[in-house]
Write the structure tokens for this entry.
Amino acid sequence: MNDQSMTVRGKDRYKSGVMEYKKMGYWEPDYTPKDTDIIALFRVTPQDGVDPIEACAAVAGESSTATWTVVWTDRLTAAEKYRAKCYRVDPVPNSPGSYFAYIAYDLDLFEPGSIANLTASIIGNVFGFKPLKALRLEDMRLPIAYVKTFQGPATGIVVERERLDKFGRPLLGATVKPKLGLSGRNYGRVVYEALKGGLDFCKDDENINSQPFMHWRDRFLYCMEAVNRAQAATGEVKGTYLNVTAATMEDMYERAELARELGSVIIMIDLVIGYTAIQSMAKWARRNDMILHLHRAGHSTYTRQRIHGVSFRVIAKWMRLAGVDHIHAGTVVGKLEGDPATTRGYYDICRQDFNPMKLEHGVFFDQNWASLNQMMPVASGGIHAGQMHQLLDHLGEDVVLQFGGGTIGHPKGIQAGATANRVALEAMILARNEGRDYVHEGPEILAKAAQTCTPLRDALEVWKDITFNYESTDSPDFVPTATPAM
Amino acid sequence: MSAVAASPAEAAETPPPEQVDLRREFNEVGIGDVLDQLDRELIGLKPVKTRIREIASLLLIERIRKRMNLTSDVPTLHMSFTGNPGTGKTTVALRMANILHKLGFVRRGHVVSVTRDELVGQYIGHTAPKTKEILKKAMGGVLFIDEAYYLYRPDNERDYGQEAIEILLQVMESQREDLVVILAGYGDRMDKFFSSNPGFRSRIAHHIDFPDYADDELLAIAELMLRDMNYRFSADAREAFIRYIELRKAQPLFSNARSIRNALDRMRLRQANRLVADLDRVLTADDIMSLEESDVLASRVFLK
Amino acid sequence: MRVTQGCFSFLPDLTDEQITAQVQYCLDNGWAVNLEFTDDPHPRNTYWEMWGLPMFDLRDAAGVLMELNECRKVYGDRYIRMSAFDSSHGWESVRLSFIVNRPKDEPGFRLERHEAGGRNIRYTTKSYATDRPEGGRYGGK
């Protein structure tokens, strides 16, 4: 697919009229991206009859300097520097009609330390372009020069563990259920029971902000009463993610301040507050020793379909730069979308200091994080204690496992549900460290632990048949081929 | 929380075997390779190699007895190696650790090699932590104590070696499954040491004596060393070296293989000087590899 | 009440065999193992007393168990925990930490509430044990 360059150079380039994008300098197959270039990988599906190279060049153009006709004012600038260059186009395996377009953007196109600017630049204009049937931002390579302009996660996995004094196992959480309707006092009861029973965190749901059934101040006050009671009852550091999402930044700061005053270790925000607000809150969190949890509310509207939108791995990269400490990243075995290989890619992006290119996980570029803190992935949605071995195997140790229904729905009550989850987790970690094949012996390990723990026994009994096996809508394009045994 | 200790679930216990295929056991364990390696690496030392093979056989049978549930005791494995310096004691200790590891009597198979100074402190309270640190590092492997008799200095009342001795004796008795101790040194001095500290003798299962190398063995060692370094004796030089060995052995402070190595180093020095004295000469590989008679005869041992 | 700090507190107290397995896991990963003890179990008490230095360069867990038994002889009336340090870039902190010894009776914590402005309350967790001075908290002299 990588043809000759068709760029028109010299005076002819700026003659008035319409010129194809691939002639205007947006298709440069001989261009080698600089170490300081930002690279975006798009999955381009042109309309029928549109030349793929032209479509990819158009994406490069419309996400940088071009417009639909030649303009003389380009000549007042060092135009060649500011043009995005599509330098490589590959057909997508097993998807006729779709192409991977690699596009390089000069560092000067971007404001340092601004996700709002990055997104406005890359996805702000081009997605509605008529000649394209569909377009997806698949991955991005962010140069160290750019990464270094961001704060990064305010706390990071290591410091979070040091603050909680919890090492060696995943953290446990639960979203308070029912999602809506509880009064402040009753809400706090759920938090107390879950934390006392053995969870590390509880969580406000994404749409719990401040509604007629519960004002935010009441929630915060009752929750912190619950957190402190649970801390005294167990001797462990406990927390609950107080959701400070609100209509304006001023309101958000007000809520965050109260959370800090009350001594919470952690607050939470929703993705829908916008990139600017997220960065502001990350800055605030660092200044106020607060762990910042991000709920990825609304992302599935644009991340879920393989053919159009923005891949979640790009969102995860942006969020790590922006500076959140926790991000929901999928469970693999729970009720929400996410196949194992792709989810593994997301988790690596959150946790590694250097992501090597790994097409089977959907990681298209080597990405260096320049020692930015690691982000703790959160697995939440339809998981229960009986899946503990699978969760540990797929997701690793540095993750928050959230069992909302899996705690509150326990037949003997919330404390029992929490205890069941905690015992299952500790028993699995113990077995794994001993060198046992916990992936295959998981059910026996859980059954053995259940012998000395009635709540776990009940949990395994109630949920023993629950699985969520559906066809994934977004699995990797590259699958390692099995090589025949020699 | 109930007080029942949840121990790791064990695989269903298999009944002990009634028969064991000895050759298969031997091959599986892989000590054949280690013994062959010992044969190849070390020149001579016939009595030592025989002893090692004997011990290996004993331990192999012990292992089988354990598998058949005929014994549950931990065998005593501590050893003493006596002999002059340069007779291969350290090398054999390494191989022994390997054998013990392959037979499953030692968990990790590494060797920690110390002398008195690493075990004994300079002031009150210094010794115990020092000794314990060494022991911790050696656990799961072999602790090799060279010139062990220096631990015992009865004439100096401010000496703290006794503390180290007590700790060692205690560990050698009560933690036999965690650590194997090998004490090494000159034969007569080790004897005196054991007499003054009888606790050791009763804890040591195997005494191995390392005799001095015979002349022809020393020659073979020299030629092996030279071959490894890509040197060789000329015919005359070889003859001269045989005479050298005879004379040198009679002199004091002869450290067997070590002394041979030192001698070879000095001969290489003389060779280099001989070659460089004539800068106009064109050298072939042969010239550079060859040690001539003059390089050997220049030694002081020939001045009589 | 049972203080549930550390990685395995919700399981029955670990046997020496289980502790050995965990320690060996840490040593196999190249982490330095450290023993600490305290009689102040407050969750924000980060700095327990160290029993010796972190043990670097050990190959086998037996060495650590030796130290643990020594520590129990002296401080068996207190909390003892085992921590493993990972010095690799990007972590440089503790990887695993769990309690290996507890006092016979654990009286637990009192929650103190101080009313601040409005409906706000300032909370403090206080350990009943620390009502007595260090050394005399769990039946010690």
Q: What stands out?
A: The first helix of chain A runs from residue 52 to 62. The longest strand of chain A covers residues 132-141. Chain A is about 35% helix and 15% strand.
